UniProtKB/TrEMBL annotation:
Pfam families: OmpW. Transmembrane segments: none annotated. It is found in: Cell outer membrane. Residues 1-29 form the signal peptide. Keywords: Signal. This is OmpW family protein. Its main location: membrane. InterPro entries: OMP/PagP_B-barrel, OMPW.
Amino acid sequence: MKMAGKIVRLLSVYLVLLNVNLIPDVAHAQSAGSTVVSVGWARIMPLSNSDPLTVTSLAGHPVNQVETGTSGAATSTDTVGLVIERYITDNIGVAVAGGFPAYLGLEGRGTLGKYGQIGKARPWAPQVILRYHFLPATSKFRPFAGIGVNYTWFTNVRVNNQTFVTQSFGPGSSANASASSSWNPVFELGANYQFDKHWAAGFSFSYIPASTNVTLTGHTATGVDIVSKTRLRLRPITTFLNVSYIF
């Protein structure tokens, strides 16, 4: 019986020590030195509008003709988001955010509203964000706020509404477009909930006050080029629902 009692006491001490060793690992997983990889669904919702189209060149000759009543806006889209964050301290982390970009539609507004979607482009918008995580590292639920910088550029910019092209530049015409790149600030709010040592789920909102200069060039059937420009304000709000793995 004495031997059995000693064994029980030794097992109890061992279990206590094991529990003490395990608890900090689980509770402090999102702490200094941790790397967190998050993947999920990003919904991009531009608060978009534009200036009127202004004809700046006709057959190579400069003009300044404002097309009153014309306007445009970018449409919402969905994509796969990816964020990699490195914790510098228990509360401060540096995150790199991006994802595979879907196409962003450009639709007509004002007098151009009758055409619906006029064109599309593939946006690329990587971000570097400095985050502050509230509450102690032992907390499972941790809200955070972030501020950072973004660089936005566009590829595959296309005018894909032939009705708009024909009515704007005449039968047999064609058109192409381009969009400028820009540096922008990033503002972010979010929260994570940690289930165990390695897995967590999160949700965040981010806002980028981005704009781009769009150049539209129409090529008439007779070989005359008509160049128009506008300032398109994108200002997307992005929601990101994700799962994370903590290293």
